[in-house]
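Human: Respectfully, please carefully check these tokens:
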Amino acid sequence: MCMKNRIYLLFISILTFSAIGCSDLRFGDAFLEKAPGVDVTVDTIFSSKLYADRALVAAYSTLRVGFPIHNQAWPLSSSGLYDPGKRYDRACSQLDNDVLDSITDLMESHNDWSSGGQEYAAGNYSAETENGASWTKLAFTPDKELNWSGIRRSFQYIENVDRVPDMTDQEKAYGKGEAYLIIATHYLDMFRHYGGIPLLKASVGADNVQGTDFSRRTAEEVLAYIIELCDTAADLLPWTVSADKDGHMTKASAMGLKCRALLFAASPLFNWKEPYSSNTPVAQSANASLVNSEDIPKMYWFGGYDPNRWQAVADACEAFIKENKANGDPYGLVYAEADDVESYRSNWSTCFVDRYNFEILIQTGRHYDTFANTYHRCYYGVSDDNGNNGRGYGGGCITLNFVDMFQNMDGTPAIYADWIAKNGNVAKINEDPFRGRDPRLYESVMINGDHFRGRAAEMWIGGLERGSAEGNRAITGFCSRKFIWDYNDDTYMNRPLNYAYLRMPEIYLTYAEALNELGRTDEALYWLNLVRQRVGIADMTEELLVANQGNKNLPKYEGLQGNPLLREEILDERARELFFEECRWYDIVRWKRDDIFKKDLYGIQITIDKAVRSADTNNDGIINDEDDLDAYESTFHYSDPRKEDDRYWKMNWDTKWYLSAFPTNEINKGYGLVQNPGW
């Protein structure tokens, strides 16, 4: 391959430290008067602990955040840079301000311009899209996603931190461990979207570009490297950090990320008897000489089924649990202080967001000050935003399918259509189809009549949260409440931002899933129930498994030992517990659940059937105006389930949707990149 092509690689568009200098790491007032790239070099950056720490923070700022993020930088190529007094900017908002759950069965996007509904669900995504659009779910190039930038920054830190004169050896070791784990998270993110990818094992610059192999590696090689990075980081990091170091990676972070990686690898997408697609790509033009044709299927498939991969998941989870116990069990679930629904709710609603929270293993997004600095407020805001009634742009329209995953407190199924068939369509709020369910429902989904801002949430047509019948906000009858709370200054606008990239419940449910696939059903139920117990839900039993999952037409995986009903229940539990934490998409993909991709999605419509109005409750001199309505005494009409428009892949399903496409421009550069099947 010629030098010209190598220089033009996407990786080289991530400039060297000497080039990025002041424009990539603006260290404060002492450097503001200096022209970018003049004298802020590698030597300057690693001349003191202060600057080296900021270099590491710059690498942290590239980590994935599941919120829609408003990009402050223009052009996009300047994103991810540190600006004193502000923050590090993301390259873009993935899915153009939709979130990953919006292209699963949990949520429908009715936003008129975001890409979850307008591009993916409409079937408009293609390999050509990856060349220029900023709205893909995980972009490959660094001008749209910060994966390669984060990898490069981390390696540059690892390669240069030893020269810092005022850092101790322990501080340098910890910093290296953090950087190794940042690299691992980026590779795992790309692995779950693309399969095999190019592997960089050092920073790349003009001095070593010619000898660097940029060809696409097999999925097995990428997985092995992710595990190696996790193990390396774990050997360097402490199990916990003090409050003043909150947000830094730990050994627990490394061992937890390893569990996540091994679970994805053990699942049938890659770990099966045949590849997920029979459409084998071909290396074209200059790529053909750089890639072994026999390796191409193994870029998205392990080459066969190995049951030992499930044992590797269990072993990793057991190692994590053992290490946590040896350190005094600092990590665990946040439990309610009292045995009542409101306590379950209030405690669960903080476990995925509070800082210095020993339920969160990896936290991201902290380079933004508050939740108000995200576009979450615009697309998922439910009422007004400090007086702006234009919020709630139609993102976050929760499906009835998801609501029906939340069981009654006794563990029995709570299916809306069954309730309507038995009780009819008219009810008061305290007697409607949504009472008495899993407390996480009310903290995840805005439910009609639930307490909100000291009043009843108005999810009926014309209500404050739902809006007009013509509007897109909450058009399914539901909208997201997770990370919204009461949507005011105290609970949202001024709340310090923290995103749970990895939490303890995922470790427990990963362990449960692996145990089930190893035929250890009773042990699997124990770890599943541990997650349920902290919100007061009855333990799952064999009888309840049949009641909740027995009437479903579940896919068969010939050769797997797992109980299919328990497998489905664990996947449902992951959806309930980890909603809005970028879990469901990967679960659907790794289990090759085309049935979920193609299923009918539903919403409902709520109208006031009989409004009960009281006296002049708001003291405005007008009796029986809209503000005097007592929602709890009103009677509502709950429609039959209303089918949403079909997504493109329902009638045009292709297994290519399991993985993303590589940009055609990158493939055409001829450095050994081979397209994924079908794209």
Summary: DSSP finds 26 helices and 13 strands in the chain. The two ends are 24 Å apart (CA to CA). The CA atoms of residues 114 and 219 lie 31 Å apart. The first strand starts at residue 107 and ends at 108.
